[in-house]
Write a structure and sequence with these properties.
Membrane topology: Single-pass membrane protein
Shape: rod-shaped
Radius of gyration: 60 Å
Distance between the termini: 170 Å
Strand content: under 5%
Protein name: ATP synthase subunit b
Family: Belongs to the ATPase B chain family.
Pfam family, one: ATP-synt_B
Order of helices and strands: HH
Number of strands: 0
Helix content: over 70%
Structural class: mainly alpha
Largest sheet: none
Subcellular location: Cell membrane; Endomembrane system
Length: 156
């Protein structure tokens, strides 16, 4: 075989293979590489967007946390004020109850003193009548001398 013919056929086969590769093989490969490049670019953009969203979410969380802390502090202060008000109200109510109980005790004591005085007056009147009986050695009629006994009670 002739060396020139071999080189010529190899050159033709090489050019046909090059043309076939450029026409049918290379475009799908470049398209696949471009698609892959685009997917990678989209993934990187999504990652950057995700980082930005994360930063925004963290900023919102910080704001929400700060507002929640201030709101909790406000609620605590309101609860302390309400507790102080309840304590003051209970203290006032207890003072009023104390005053009422003391007044009731004073009234009860005054009534007991009055009952004791009345009882003592009656006993003194009976003793006075018995003493008068013994002095006079005769019986005194209590019904006849009721006015005298009432006057004696009032004097005592």
């Amino acid at each position: 075989m002739n060396l020139n013919a071999t080189l010529f056929f190899q050159m033709i086969v090489f050019f046909v293979l090059g043309w076939f590769t450029m026409k049918f093989v290379w475009p799908p490969l470049t398209k696949a590489m471009d698609d892959r490049r685009q997917k990678i670019a989209d993934g990187l953009a999504a990652a950057d967007k995700g980082k930005a969203d994360l930063a925004q979410a963290q900023a919102r969380i910080s704001l929400i946390e700060a507002s929640a802390k201030s709101e909790n502090q406000t609620r605590i202060q309101e609860a302390e004020k309400q507790a102080a008000g309840l304590i003051d109200a209970a203290r006032r109510e207890a003072e009023a109850e104390k005053a009422r109980i003391l007044e009731q005790a004073r009234q009860d004591a005054a009534q007991e003193v009055q009952r004791a005085r009345d009882g003592l007056r009656a006993e003194v009147a009976v003793l006075a009548v018995k003493g008068a009986e013994q002095i006079l050695k005769r019986e005194v009629d209590a019904k006849a001398h009721a006015d005298l006994l009432d006057q004696l009670k009032t004097q005592l």
